[in-house]
Amino acid sequence: MTLLALSPAGVLSEFYISFWIPTAVLTAALVIKLPTIIRLWRDPLLRAVGGLLLLACAVFVFCTPSTIAAVNRVTGVTNISVPWCYSLLTAFCGSCLLLIITWRNGLSDRSGATRRAMRWVVSVYSGVIALLWALFLLADAPVERLRDLDTYYATTPFMREEILLYLVAHAVACLITSRLIWNWVRTEGLDAWLRWGLKLLGAGYVLNLIFDASKLTAVGARWCGRNLDWLSTDLAPPVAALSAILIAVGFILPHAGQYLHDRWRVRLAYCELGPLYQLMRSVNGEGVPFVLRATPELRLTRRETFIRDVLLPLARHIDTGLAGRAYEAALGLGHPPERARALAGAVSVLDAIEARRRTPEPAEAGTGPDTTNLLQEIGAVSRALRSPDDIEAVRAQAAAAAESVAVHE
């Protein structure tokens, strides 16, 4: 085994994350957010999220070595990508601060402190970007460096100050943003998806601080005549890529997580109504027509409506005495009250279907029992229909109770 393989640089060179991976994740986050941003374009917070994700994508696209070389070649200016990439990174940092300040305090907050903080961020980071370009124009950087520019020009006049300026601006922004996020995470009453999203964002910004520390240490080592370039060329890039992935997922999670959770609840409710829906189809002879483009919510609503529409005329055949005995029987068999009501409802519905087949119209067609609770608990009744053994046990117990009452009478 060679000495290089045992060195930190040799180990870290094996751990490589392509910059196109975080770019793809950030693009996915932007695509997920884009419909909401377009629909609610007047919302400045959503516009800020879109702008921040777009800037993050641009950072990783233009900081890729192949893109750096292409920009230098197209413009004909050696290392022109340096102030361009540093400016994108600085603008991203400022956008992060603005977004967190606005997001944390809310759009309705128009306090002087919030406005001053936002003006301070815009002024300082705009000034940093202007200074980055001025320093580059003053510097002499004739040799194109695609991967190790920070350490290669660490002692070059004006380039030295440019490198230090962007790293300090980035570190300060990440430190403040991380502090604001972690303070927010500890706030009571946060939605679970938002809390997890903030934790991922916080972890991403902590990794950004590791990126800054690695770069600054490598640059400082050059100032001291030592060589720790592996910190900048081998450690910092995968840390930055992993940080971007966490930040992108942190922005996606509150929106996508809640969306998927709502879709899962709708789908679960739709499937839970399956047994009762099939039972009502056997009574009615037809079901809800399938519509290809119907949303899950619309399909659920149609299924619920169909079940209630069939139950309403069927309710005239329900035996309220049987329902009461079935409930007591279910309790006697050890079922909790909620489950007992569902089983009693299932027994009542099955008995009503049988009664309707024997006598299509009850003796008093204009009257019927109060079925408000039954119509409200169709989900629980449908779930109970999945347990035919429990239903049979309750029916047998209820029938035995009815016989006992008849004997005593």
Automatic annotation (TrEMBL):
Residues 263-386 form the DUF6545 domain. It comes from the Bacteria. Keywords: Membrane, Transmembrane, Transmembrane helix. The chain crosses the membrane at residues 15-32, 44-68, 80-101, 122-143, 163-181, 193-211, 235-257. The keyword Transmembrane applies. Pfam families: DUF6545 (PF20182). NCBIfam families: MAB_1171c_fam. This is DUF6545 domain-containing protein. It comes from Streptomyces bungoensis.
